[in-house]
Design brief:
It is built from 9 helices and no strands. With 198 residues, the chain is an all-alpha fold. The chain has a single domain, classed as Vanadium-containing Chloroperoxidase, domain 1, CATH 1.20.144. Helix 2 crosses helix 6 and helix 4 packs across helix 7. The chain is elongated and about 55 Å long. The mean pLDDT is 93.
């Protein structure tokens, strides 16, 4: 399995001298696009009503649970990144920690799958899920992940999205009440101006 992982990685990894366009696109997908997740959740919370806010809380819980599970997996099994074993070309800096599963894609897909499973934002969830594919390619292309790291991310994200939606009755109401109370204190001025919903 590991030899297959290495073979797929070398197929997708950047050449020694990639084109400027490919490098720019890959860097954008690998490092910048992730900020769309907190931006989407933040806008949904600030501008949405109660159903939208609860949807964003469930999606956030899915992403956070995914990152927690990844930390546990990383502690139990340290899988080196390609540059840690001298494989391929690495074109962006990264900490030499465990590569499996990809934290980046776990967070992205956990939020995407959560939104896709809920009633209101399904189109946004499916769109985010599809955008995860070029992000996965970019992380491999730039040399910081193996292909199987992405399969692990899909599995963890799918489990987290399903579990946090299924068990929402345990945590959603208290977390919504707490978040709403904090929101009202932080944004009281903007709420009064009508720029942010109460």
């Amino acid at each position: 399995m590991e030899s297959l992982n290495h073979t797929f990685f070398l197929w997708l990894n950047a050449p020694e001298h990639p084109s400027a366009l490919a490098l720019t696109l890959a860097t954008f997908f690998a490092e910048q696009l992730i900020w769309a997740v907190p931006l989407l959740i933040g806008i949904g919370w600030l501008r949405g009503g109660e159903p939208t806010r609860k949807t964003m809380l469930v999606a956030s819980a899915s992403g956070l649970l995914g990152l927690l599970i990844n930390q546990i997996i990383g502690l139990a099994w340290l899988h080196p990144r390609p540059f840690m074993i001298g494989l391929g070309h690495t074109l962006i800096p990264h900490v030499a920690d465990s590569s499996f599963p990809s934290d980046h894609l776990t967070l992205w897909w956990a939020v995407a799958f959560s939104l896709a499973l809920q009633r209101g934002p399904r189109i946004a969830g499916v769109t985010l899920a599809l955008l995860g594919v070029p992000i996965a390619w970019a992380r491999i292309y730039l040399g910081v992940h193996f292909p199987f790291d992405m399969l692990g991310a899909i599995a963890v994200a799918a489990i987290c999205a399903w579990l946090t939606l299924r068990e929402a009755h345990w945590y959603l109401l208290p977390s919504y009440q707490l978040s709403t109370g904090i929101h009202r204190r932080l944004f009281s001025g903007l709420i009064a101006l009508g720029w942010v919903r109460e």
